Amino acid sequence: MTKLITIERLNTLAEFTLGQRWISDTESDLGLGTVVAIEGRMITLLFPASGESRLYASTEAPITRVMFNVGDTIKSAEGWSLLVSSVEESNGLIAYHGINTETEEEAILKETFLDHFVKFNKPQDRLFAGQIDRFDWYTLRYQCWQQQYAQQQSALKGLVGPRVSLIPHQLHIAEEVGKRYAPRVLLSDEVGLGKTIEAGMILHQQLIKGLASRVLIIVPETLQHQWLVEMLRRFNLRVSIFDDERCNEAYADAPNVFETEQLILVSLELLTKKKRWFEQALEAQWDLIIVDEAHHLEWSNDKPSTEYRRVEALAEETAGLILLTATPDQLGHESHFARLRLLDPNRFYDYDKFVEEESHYREVANAANSLLSDNVPSQDELTIISNMLNGTDISNELALVTSDSADALDVHTAKQSLIDQLLDRHGTGRILFRNTRSGVEGFPERQLLAHEFELPKQYTTAINVTASLNANQDVTKKAHQALFPEQIYQSFEGDAASWTEFDPRVQWLISFLKENKYEKVLVICAHAQTALTLEQTLFQKEAIKAAVFHEGMSIFERDKAAAYFAKEEDAAQVLLCSEIGSEGRNFQFAHNLVLFDLPLNPDLLEQRIGRLDRIGQTETVKIHVPYFKQTAQEKLLKWYRDGLNAFEHTANTGHKIFEQFKESLLEHLAANVFDDEALLDLVESTHAVNADLKAQLEQGRDKLLEINSSGNQDTMALANEISKQDNDILLPQFMIKMFDVYGVNQEDKGDNAIILQPSEHMLVPSFPGLKDDGVSVTFDRNTALSQEDIQFLTWDHPMVQGTFDLVLTEDLGNSSVALLNNKAVPVGTFFVELIFVAESSAEKALQLGRYLPPTPIRILLDKGGNNLSNNVSFDQFNRQLSPTGRQTGSKLVNALQPAIHPLIAKGETLASEQMEQIQQDAKSAMNNSLEQEIARLNALKQVNPNIRDEEIDFIANQQSQLLSAIDSAQLKLDAIRLIVVSHQK
Fold first, then answer.
1. What is the DSSP string of 158-202?
2. pTM of the entire structure?
3. pLDDT tens digits, 265-280
4. Domains of the chain, with CATH numbers?
């Protein structure tokens, strides 16, 4: 066995001699020091490796004398090495005799000429060198290994970190898609159900699990900054926006600008209009591409749009692809097919075949509906189910669901089993996820509050004059004009005309805001100038704080306005938006929506209401509509309210209804008369067709797809598990100990938040994630959701993960001495506690941590070499121990060193035996898991062509590489603690 370093501690002035070599106990990174001056009671050490010198009081110097043993190989400052055969001390200096390992000749090496760069990293070296760490550091180090091990194997890894509400359908999609290799899916939840959050959660998992590292996010230009902020605030992901200016700057430093960052956000417009940058994006290698607002990718068999062709080219070169759209069929069924074609062109290559297959999907869905109901499936439905699950023995389940005498619970279990199997094999189920408001709980009520006003005479005059001047004008233009009398008035009176002086809607708005001054109010109108004029009027008349949000503002200005509205103190009461305010932004913290005018499109109306009507809205959404009676505004209000019921319920039929009644509606709106009877006929016709369409939609609902998209009951259990971990005090206790140990200042900020500040006495120059000016953190999800300026600490958070790395890659706490005050154990008895780690290295994408994360192995040996670790737990033992000073600890180590050496060797043997079992268990768990998944996918592939060969091949290749990685695991001694029994208090 290689002999280890022996330390001899000297504490009197006479024992210091010029030329002696000492090491600093508190600054071990200085290297080996030399005594260069002794003046009175002070000594000076020079550390040549670092060029530093230190002045110490001789009786209190935190330094340790270094002496090597016979058998050690030591290095000289000149670079040659000596195998020590004997040690001689003369006049306080040590000379080492032995063999020069290069020349194999006898040589002498005086301690003054030892290598200056000696540093003790191994725990046993540090222990014998007297570099003994604080008692709590050792405890914290072991807890780090335990927690890292637990989190690596946690099924919640990657799911707990996002700053999001625990909404079951979102968690299901994130968990189901995020764990896949190179997922290719279409997320098409209805407005307000959180597609962006779902995409972010998938991305977060892919990055944390190592399944992706280079990601391109493509969004409309207006949503770039929103995505940037969402990715940072919700997921701690720092993406880089690449616009034309950024690309030009990056091109000066790299031949391909898209290879200068890993997570890149780019507008669809840039890739469409700038061929140069598109070609560079195409040449770059991506693991995953995300495309928001994918319904803008228009396609026809004869002439696909440029946007579609650009994304198609990128999709062909990239393994993973996620498309987002709330309206999969809005631009027609062919466009919906085209988006599926982007995801898997081999599977969706012919539109007619796709339509034919869809008819069979509906048959399967109808059969599933029978299983979901109390009805007994028909013989035709049973045949469909049997054919769909061909190759699987479902005879018992079928017998139970058709039995008249079977127990109700058994029937329910059998039906659920069949549904679960159908879900796995159903049509587009693996690549298409669509949740609807009708199938998801958690949405608020919607209440329409219409406010009727007389049309001012100024508007009446302007409208009549316009009607006479534009008698032959296009009906569409007439209809649009009739909805905005303030625009007609200004066209005659000029931009300086102050319509707000007489418009009763303005006075009503001012009164409403004053009466509800503690309420946040979102106001949406069609035109930017209307919003600007209202903002100026509110301020001038009543000093009401308002923010404006319109298309003429930069992205930064829009974000600033939205933030001013969102703040709780010294903030805007009202946000005035042009139509762009109904795109992409979420203001569910407000409960009052004022539609200053109405859009001539049901989809736009739903988008407006959807800014407040979202999951997370805590109160009824009050929709205020001020309108002028006996005008086009009243006509449109009645058509929306009585024909579509579009205010208080989601108008999922709105697009088709509008296309059918568009011509009649425009004629009514354009007419300069109010025909009650004709309007009533239009409204009643609309109502009837709407009811019929809704019935068809309900009858044609693919409930199987909805269940697959929402996760059925499983995701509620997942949400509960995350909530349980959120409420566990283990993480707060762990991190607060870390802050204390490393010297991070902490100050309470309310009940659930802490302000962290760097201190002058921190153990490291910088703590992970801690800015120079400090940071506010919370461990509470609700606090994090309500206060976005506070960071949400979870086991996934970069600060927590960085803390693991900080501790476990350094030697903090890996050498310790403690005292055991136990009367039942004789004084002088000692124990050696060894923490070994079994670990292997592999590509991050293999996710080796699922089966063999770095695994701590604790060995507790008495002086006879008996392993007590199975009988004496770490926590139980640790509570009986007390710390000891460094000087006392060094003396105990020196006295017991000869006995400790063989115990370390014994511990390594015992740990090696445990590691073999750990490897076997890891291989067994890995093989069982991956072989089951391969078998499942192969079975599904027979009936569901959406299962790609690449997925199966990837898993098989993973299995082979994981076997190799597990077999090559190594054992290292990570920490050592000497425990000596003492009955002194």
1. TTSSSS----HHHHHHHHHHHTSSS-EEEE-PPTTS-HHHHHHHH
2. 0.75
3. 999 999 999 999 999 9
4. 6-119 (2.30.30.140), 140-148+811-981 (no CATH), 168-344 (3.40.50.10810), 360-430 (no CATH), 446-691 (3.40.50.300), 728-794 (3.30.360.80)
